[in-house]
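Pasting as-is:
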Amino acid sequence: MYKNLVGRALLALASTSIFFSFSTHTAQAAEPLKIGFVYVTPVTDAGWTHQHDEGRKAVAAALGDKVKTTFVENVPEGPDAERVIRDLARQGNKLIFTSSFGYMEPTLKVARDFPDVKFESITGYKQAPNVATANARYYEGRYLSGVVAARMSKTHVAGYVAGFPIPEVLQGINAFTLGMRSVDPKAQVKVIWLNEWFNPPAERDAAMALFNQDVDVISFHTGSTAVMAAAQERGKMAIAYHSDMRKVAPDAQIVAVQHLWGDYYTQRARAVLDGSWKSGDTWGGVKEGMIRVGEFGPKVPKAVQAEVLARQKDIAEGKLQPFRATGGDVRDNEGKVRIGAGKALSDAEILQMNWLVEGVQGRIK
């Protein structure tokens, strides 16, 4: 009997151990992937950060309880960024997206201390075994928006409110100008540099100053909707950037250049979940679904909309390259040939762009 009791006790203990072992394993298997996002501006109804937060929401919608996302907004580039990124890693986030160029070095520094965490440096260009980089070919959308601007402008003069003179911004200004001049050789683009990404009052003042210089359509590369609001106030036309901004400028918006991050972010989260994540560099555009123009304003004729959408299709199919010289040499605004007739810039040349194309009134500051 004693043996039977001992046997039963051992069997019960074994069963309990198996149960707890199974339960613990199940709990561990069900633990969601924690994903952190770092934003350079506050989350607003539209703009750069808004689009990245839409990407975060897309990940949560696609992967459900397999992931748990969090974000920290309005993080300045520099020491604060390193602190925030480090805190997210310490909190158990195993995938961290840092969505500004100035976060690149802080991301690399933190990544060295957390080799088991995967980092995605958005708009950065330096990789590490656990740091990937990704960016979009924003210039493709800029070119297309330039076509719309030229078709709609009566003065042949567009304005451009720009943040910093980094290659990404220069690509946009040049592609926009080339798009305009592809249908209006007289087109000119006036640029005001702010040397900051997010300052709504300064953005508004710059737009107003440009409207006082024969500008009737405006574009921008900053983080708020202030330029759109200024155009709405002055009865001018504007090109939304990052996201659709018709809510802010229902009459002023003629087209929007949108950045779509949801698919990329979801793919990268899935890769971490299934163990296939690898470092590398992604530079996607219209073809990859990361850039799209649309959301035309009511003023834009259907014929112009069709023309732009046809060119967008050509870019997706590789038939149109904004930085290919198809009608003779492309020169900078100091007269130097930058793209020889019939030639196209390589990706490396585009990524190192440090000049302004003919037709741009302004200098790199």
